[in-house]
Design goal:
Elements: E1 2-6, H1 13-22, E2 26-31, E3 40-42, H2 48-58, E4 62-65, H3 74-95, E5 100-104, H4 131-150, E6 153-159, E7 161-163, H5 172-182, E8 190-194, E9 200-201, E10 203-205, H6 206-218, E11 224-228, E12 234-235, H7 236-247, E13 251-255, E14 267-268, H8 273-279, H9 287-309
Parallel strand pairs: 1-2, 1-4, 2-3, 4-5, 5-6, 6-11, 7-10, 8-13, 9-14
Antiparallel strand pairs: 9-12
Helix pairs in contact: 1-6, 2-3, 3-4, 5-9, 7-9
Length: 310
């Protein structure tokens, strides 16, 4: 099996590529630049000809789309998250219509949980609060409509809050660790600015996410939306304390109104029942283990950068 992974060199892409290769797949990653080789292609999801070229060169049995814009202008998010998804599906329809397509959605598609609801299921009504969430939900709806119209096999993975080595700074844990390291040379305690600490989130380790997606790919007939999550809400204040603990530092968390996002839901928790029913999937990595891996990678990168500067 050949799997074409758009954005395969990123935070989620790297462990997913490892999982797929371990399962025996030939994996071709893509990026907008880089050296073209047997296992790497240039592909820009905003360029239909570029997508068709990658498909016609490698004839994949599975395409996984991790190309996304989570921060920046609304125009950039729409161009990649929405229009890029349409370009990809259209190219698959024309070149390899039997190909399996796995798209990455987001927990941001759900928005606030309805009153009295403990977790978000795939069939729940979505009411995203952020521009990013709106673009991802639009892409999901377009993808499912295209799949029905063109008889394509499309699965939309909706991961919740992902943590692990290489966690980007646009995600909560990555942003907090970046601020901790910026204050690292100071005395005890570190003083680190944070936004809201009264919210609750559902966290999933990036390695567990990769295993879940690989398991879904192995389920040949699986289509539609599938949450990838733990199903357990964790208070952000508890997460902050855990990050300080794995860092081995005393931290004072200073509320900063400028870091509060008005589009942030108070509670974001997913229902993992469909994923478990399809694959038997159970997370292997605890939140503490995932946070420790996140910290260790970030701190090692921080030390290396310091040595280079000196």
């Amino acid at each position: 099996m050949t799997a074409l992974v758009l954005g395969g060199g990123g935070f989620v892409g790297r462990p997913l590529v490892q999982e797929l290769r371990a399962a025996g797949a030939r994996v071709v990653t893509t990026s907008r630049a880089g050296t073209v080789s047997a296992d790497h292609a240039r592909c820009d999801i905003t360029d239909p000809a570029s997508i068709r070229g990658a498909l016609e060169t490698h004839w994949p049995a599975v395409v996984v789309n991790l190309a996304t814009v989570a921060r920046g202008t609304a125009e950039a998010m729409v161009a990649t998250n929405v229009v890029g998804t349409v370009h990809l599906l259209d190219a698959v329809r024309e070149v390899v219509p039997s190909c399996r397509v796995v798209l990455f959605g987001s927990a941001a598609e759900y928005g606030d949980l309805p009153p009295g609801t403990a977790s978000a299921a795939e069939s729940d009504v979505c009411a995203p609060r952020s521009i990013y969430g709106v673009t991802k939900l639009t892409a999901t709806r377009l993808a499912l409509a295209a799949a029905a119209r063109w008889n394509l096999r499309v699965t939309v993975v909706r991961p919740f809050n992902v943590v692990g080595a290489g966690c980007p700074t646009h995600l909560l844990v990555g942003a907090v660790i970046e601020r901790m390291l910026a204050a690292w040379g100071g005395g005890e305690p570190l003083t680190v600015s944070v936004g809201r600490t009264d919210t609750h989130r559902d966290f999933i380790a990036v390695d567990d996410l990769a295993r879940a997606v690989a398991a879904l790919i192995d389920c040949a007939d699986t289509t539609g939306i599938v949450n990838v999550c733990s199903g357990h809400p964790v208070g952000i204040s508890a997460v902050l304390d855990a990050v300080a603990r794995v860092a081995g530092r005393d931290v004072t968390w200073r509320p900063d109104p400028s870091l509060v996002r008005i589009d942030e839901p108070a509670v974001s928790v997913g229902d993992p029942a469909r994923l478990a029913a399809l694959t038997g999937y159970v997370p292997r990595t605890s939140l503490d283990q995932a946070l420790a891996a996140t910290w260790a990678h970030a701190y090692a990168t921080f030390q290396t950068a310091g040595k280079h500067r000196s």
